[in-house]
Amino acid sequence: MSIQSGLPADFTPESFDAIVVGAGYAGSVCARRLAEACGMKVAILERRDHIAGNAYDYEDEAGILVHKYGPHIYHTTNERVDQFLSRFTEWTNYQHKVLANIHGTLMPVPFNHKSLKLAFGDEKGERLYQKLVATFGENKKVPIMELREKNDPELSEVADYVFENVFLHYTMKQWGKTPDQIDPSITGRVPVFVGDDDRYFPGAPFQGMPAEGYTKLFENMLEHDLISVFTGVDARDILSVGDSAVTVCGKPYGGEVIYTGPLDELFGSDLGALPYRTLDMVFETLDEDQFQPVGTVNYTTSEDFTRITEFKNMTGQVVPGKTTIMKEYSKAFTPGSDETPYYAILEDQNLELYRRYRDRVAGCLNFHAVGRLAEYRYYDMDGVVASALDLSDELIAQHN
């Protein structure tokens, strides 16, 4: 792998078999697979000045490894995804736990046995828990809609408590909605965990943190003689898509193009901008060993921010007397700004707008949109990797 800042004056697209836009998960996975499975020479064009996309991490001034674009916690049930990523990193045994600050009391999320007793007192909480066990069985995630459907006043009381104190206000902050704007089908899926497992991802057999960080994982993934990475390059300056052809540097390009950026931006958002939520992230280094008991605390009933992340609790890094925390403030994404679009707003009119953009590239058989932004959907990290593996499977089959 070679990494260069900017494109060299003698950059010739035709000398590459594939051009990948974006050095995050989707682009990096595809680049690695095409290089090693097909012998393709791959150019990666990355708008930012670093690889690893939103998973990028680095040591701050206090020497603490932080995630620049918000906490990334690896977890998956997909064995193929785990096998692929595990080629490029060792994993720690970190098991993610989240607490909700509910009126000053820290309770496990998803809401579980311990949460019930903290919310309702030991005696009543235990009685409610035993009723949940008798009704649904142990170690089950039960949506609050199912609690309400039992027409049991006590189970409805649990559902109402979780809705009001864990979900409602947090969701209003996260998505900028009023209670009447929140889709009932989503609220009904909010779970209660009938059990004592207080991990946030109890059903994921593969979870942890990359032992040397995410950026190192990406460096290892892109370490291939046939991969060249060009940072600080906005692909829109040299790439355009017509009805049936891709043009790069003013000439038709016949190789494969893998695009992982926002599809509307490729066309100057001329049909309208796809809406997203973004985040303001405020980092603060404190003169103490530990600020909170777990990696993430959600503020579900108070504060303007949604959650606080403490990175040392996730990475296991030892830096005596210092810790770095990050607060997240959710807001609407401003099209054309330098803000990062994090969460697609998956409402019908927005999905229809996305389909109209997608139709405009459908005739370009060598243009492939993949990833969270290019597909306009919410993905966890493993979902992006799975989508990129599927696409690269198709391309490898075509070229071998």
From TrEMBL:
UniProt EC number: 5.4.99.9
InterPro entries, per the entry: UDP-GALP_mutase, UDP-GalPyranose_mutase_C
Enzyme class: isomerase
Keywords for this protein: FAD, Flavoprotein, Isomerase
Essential cofactor(s): FAD
UniProt-recorded Gene Ontology molecular function terms: UDP-galactopyranose mutase activity
Record-annotated UDP-galactopyranose mutase C-terminal domain positions: 166-378
Database matches in PANTHER family: UDP-GALACTOPYRANOSE MUTASE
NCBIfam families linked to this entry: UDP-GALP_mutase
Family per record: Belongs to the UDP-galactopyranose/dTDP-fucopyranose mutase family.
Protein name: UDP-galactopyranose mutase
Source species of the chain: Paratractidigestivibacter faecalis
